[in-house]
Structure formats: structure tokens, C-alpha cells
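Quick bug: Xylose isomerase output formatted oddly.
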Amino acid sequence: MTNFFDGIDAVKFDPSSDSDLAYRYYNPDEIVMGKRMEDHLRFAVAYWHSFAWEGGDPFGGRTFDRPWYPQDSMELAKVKADAAFEMFAILGQPFFCFHDADVAPGGDNFAEYKRNLEEIVDYFGEKMEATGTRLLWGTANMFTHRRFMAGAATNPDPDVYAWCAATVKSCMDATSKLGGQNYVLWGGREGYETLLNTDLVQERQQAGRFLQMVVDYKNKIGFDGAILIEPKPQEPSKHQYDYDVNTVYSFLKEFGLEGEVKMNIEQGHAILAGHSFEHELAMAAAFGILGSIDMNRNDYQSGWDTDQFPNNVPEVALAYYEILKAGGFTTGGTNFDAKLRRQSLDAEDLIAGHVGAMDVCARGFKAAAAMLEDGGLEKARAERYAGWDEPTNKAMLESGTLESIAKRVLADDINPEPRSGRQERLENYINRFV
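Here's what came back:
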């Protein structure tokens, strides 16, 4: 036990409360569309931002002061774990997520790294059994250490590639042992700074073979969870190969993995790629690869990945609308890949950030469920494309040729006039729910 969260009680659902540390909209037991809200949303806390991040930014160092700093020993790793599970008990969310580098020191060589990770996994197992908190997903940090400066699976050095393969094996073993429901791969440095020293074909082949090995190992150990890729267009690399959902799906198709791997989609990364969050979710659903989400937001003035807690209910509602329309989460969930601001120093700030985010998500989710049950958007969409249900038009799409269609246009004197897309009316419709 630590004293970091002393004096902070478990957060309760109390819509009449004026406390910063009460849920006003997130009622885990509320039934929405036939299922408990907790089971729909499947909230998770990100270990890295909540406990490993020290409050630095590109222009300044650590601002936080935590009982588990410096994060360089197994003793302090266990103090950090104690604090983490205390916070999980306060929030009552069902899941958490971690990178290997978040939870234990790396050591001086791979053998020491492996021992440290296995020791903390055993410690986690005891705490998970005692508290009931589960693991949504685990992953490997293969972007922070200087050895990854030229990438991980795409690194030009075969020894780095081998180190990464051994690291992912260890992290998959850890995730499987803890009953994790997914395993995530984020290629933070799987990209390039300049084409002057980059062989794109070689690096793409390395990445494809690496992912095939990950899938093979998943099947060998009987891991029941999903393998997920998290796309991002840039930062830290100038250009990252997993740019967006479309790019990743093309990659999966090339290496025969489209039936094996799904997506972990982050709101902030979607914005950096020039898309909306709901666009990326809709594309993943269309391809059948929607897995899980990282919920956060960017500062639209900063232009980089600021990882702030979500606070925009209409944006969140549109995201959950796409998720619900696709059938909802199975192994995935809502991970708060979000961190405090550098000036938010207190333990209460860490709790309040998550409380507010869970309430925003609950409000957006309930609005999305109401819209889906009302059916207004789907009715309008169906009406817009209704012409394609007519037998002649179906035949044109399925078996028509340019010649046959041209003959029909002449014979039937087809001279179409534009039809309204009714965008403003649909935007007004959404505002009735949020």
C-alpha cells in the first residue's frame, strides 16, 4: 500500500453531487440496449500516462513528484503497482493496459529485462486476483530506448530486429498469463526520417514478416485475444508506415493477415492523419477489422499529439455511434490514452481527469444508443441510396458494361438533376440527442 491516494474515497454514481469526484452520467449498472453500461464501454486506464509519465514535454523536464520515482528498481516498480491498483479500486473501471517499459525497469541486458517483467507480472497477477481488475491489452515499448532510433521491426540492423522479436514474445507471454483480451502493436518508430538512407521495400517486408510471426506465436500459445495494430501518421517519425486504417488494411492484405489482425484506433492519431475519429472507426468496421479504441483528444491549436482527456460529447457520440452500429466491442474497449497537463500535480487531478472522461463517454454513448434506436440517420441514408435497390440499377452495378449503360442512357433519355444531401438537417438531428 502507498499513501498517494489517501483521503480519496471510491467514486460513486451520484447525479446530484457537486463533487469533482463523482460520476453524474456513468452508471455501470444502467441497462442500455439490453446490456450494462460497464459491459458496453469496457473502460481501461493507461498505465503509461497515469503512472509512468513524469510531466515532461519537448521543452521541459519532469514536473510530477510521485512516491515511485525514480522508476529504476523492482522495489519502486511494486510501489507504482500498489498505487495503480489503489486508483483502479477508486475508479472502479474494469480494465487497465500497459507497455513493458511502464511496469518494470529494463535492466542491463535482455535476460535481466525478462526476469524483471516476469516478476512484475506475477505481482500483477496477485493484485488482479484480489481486486478483480482485468487486463484489456498489453504491448511492448519499442520506441523509447535509443536502440530503437531507426525503428523496431523495420530497423536496418538484424540484431535490433531479433531483440524486438524476443521482446514481443515476452510481452505476449505476459499478456496471455494475465488473461489479457488483446495484444497491441504500435510502431512508434516504424517509419523514416529521410528517404536518402531508407529502403522502403526492405523495411515493408521486414514488418510484414514480423507480424506474421506474431500471429503464428499467438496461435501456438493459444492466446484467445485479438492482435491489434494502432495506426498513426507521424510523430515521432516523419512518416510512419501505419499511417491510417486504409494504409494498414492494405498492408494486412499484402501479407495475408486481414483475417488475423484488427485495429486499435486512437482519436488523436485519427486527427493527425487528417481524418475524424468516426471516419477511422467506420472504415475499420467496413473492413471488418474494428477491435478497440484509445479515447483522448488533441489540442487543435497545437497540431501535435497532446493526449488530453476527452471533453466533447458530440464528438464522442459520433464515435460510439459507429462502434454500436458495428455491433459494439467484443474483446476491445475504451482505453483512456490520456494524461494530465504538466501543471496538474495532485493525486486528485489524476482521479478527476478519469472521472470526467468516463462521464463524457457515458453521455456520448447514451446519445449514440438513442440515435441508433431511433433510426433517423440510417433511414436517411437508406433513402439516399434507395435507387440502387431497383432491379435495373442493381443489374447495372453487378453486370453492366460501359456500352450497355450508354445505350440505356440514350434509350431512356436519362438526364439526372442533383438531389440534396440534407447535411444541415442531419446535423440538426444529431443535436437533438447530444
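Actually, after a second look the formatting is fine. The radius of gyration is 24 Å. Closing.
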